[in-house]
């Protein structure tokens, strides 16, 4: 299967082009990596002492968000237990060499948003929010170093797959008469309040998500009135100097920071 075939399977991805950096070696390395990660590809965790020296095997089955110039390669994957029963999970791989380039991104985060840093932030946040896993955020299966094959390694987060849909603007009814009814507006208000209460649960545990946007929130099929937060890769402690003097109301008010990210 070629990389472009993966695109037909519903994953979100960027176009891959050879205009990056003009550096042939980097270009070839990225191309090799992209070709390596494909549906059906087998990856394995590198045994480490804190995981009792055990390796876990995964087959990548469906791209959720993959491609060049991505902060993470996110795959649905299956893993098998000793009885041969399988479990479907998400594997989020942080791979430095497939990160957005300053040219593609419009800003330079080189040396700041490294794979190790993003993994560490996500790991810290999942730890701080452990009692919310399985509710407001997916259950984490842990952080591992993966052997991708051909000598490539990457750090990755294994977590529960949330079936649902990304939070999206309702373009269908937006602007239509039914959008303006009192009932519809009350319903939206109630959902917004619920959303904010859920965000404040993160804050209560000392975590500012710091990258709240529709693609980082899922409305789960099992509870469409609820929200599940994803992507804590740039989450920060509420004690961080950026937030330290802010009142809770300020943190909740979608204040725009650098990069136009809401500080929620
Ligand atoms: N546990 C999960 N269950 C279901 N879908 C998921 C899960 N984790 C990630 N996804 C899907 O993969 C997408 C990308 O995941 P995530 O936001 O964690 O990666 P990212 O590379 O940091 O993304 P971006 O840079 O675009 O914010 C999400 O928008 C969502 O559609
Ligand atoms: Mg994201």
UniProtKB/TrEMBL annotation:
<dbReference type="GO" id="GO:0005524">
    <property type="term" value="F:ATP binding"/>
</dbReference>
<dbReference type="InterPro" id="IPR011009">
    <property type="entry name" value="Kinase-like_dom_sf"/>
</dbReference>
<feature type="domain" description="Protein kinase">
    <location>
        <begin position="60"/>
        <end position="264"/>
    </location>
</feature>
<dbReference type="GO" id="GO:0004672">
    <property type="term" value="F:protein kinase activity"/>
</dbReference>
<dbReference type="InterPro" id="IPR000719">
    <property type="entry name" value="Prot_kinase_dom"/>
</dbReference>
<dbReference type="InterPro" id="IPR008271">
    <property type="entry name" value="Ser/Thr_kinase_AS"/>
</dbReference>
<protein>
    <recommendedName>
        <fullName>Protein kinase domain-containing protein</fullName>
    </recommendedName>
</protein>
């Amino acid at each position: 299967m070629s990389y472009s075939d993966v695109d037909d399977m519903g994953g979100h991805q960027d176009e891959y082009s050879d205009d990056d950096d003009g550096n042939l070696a980097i270009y070839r390395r990225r191309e090799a990596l992209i070709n390596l990660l494909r549906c059906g590809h087998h990856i394995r965790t590198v045994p480490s002492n804190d995981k009792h020296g055990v390796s876990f095997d995964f087959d990548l089955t469906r791209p959720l968000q993959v491609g060049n110039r991505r902060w993470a390669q996110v795959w649905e994957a299956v893993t098998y237990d000793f009885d041969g029963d399988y479990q479907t999970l998400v594997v989020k791989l942080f791979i430095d060499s497939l990160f957005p380039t300053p040219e593609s991104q419009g800003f330079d985060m080189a040396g700041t948003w490294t794979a190790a840093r993003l993994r560490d932030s996500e790991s810290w946040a999942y730890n701080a929010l452990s009692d919310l896993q399985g509710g407001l955020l997916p259950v984490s299966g842990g952080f591992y170093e993966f052997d991708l094959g051909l000598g490539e390694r990457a750090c990755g987060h294994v977590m529960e797959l949330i079936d649902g849909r990304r939070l999206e603007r309702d373009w269908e009814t937006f602007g239509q008469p039914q959008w303006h009814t009192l009932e519809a507006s009350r319903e939206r208000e109630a959902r917004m309040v619920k959303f904010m209460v859920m965000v404040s649960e993160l804050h209560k545990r000392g975590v500012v998500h710091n990258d709240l946007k529709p693609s980082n929130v899922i409305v789960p099929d099992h509870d469409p009135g609820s929200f599940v937060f994803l992507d804590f890769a740039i989450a920060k402690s509420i004690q961080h100097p950026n937030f330290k003097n802010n009142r809770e109301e300020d943190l909740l008010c979608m204040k725009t920071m650098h990069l136009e990210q809401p500080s929620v």
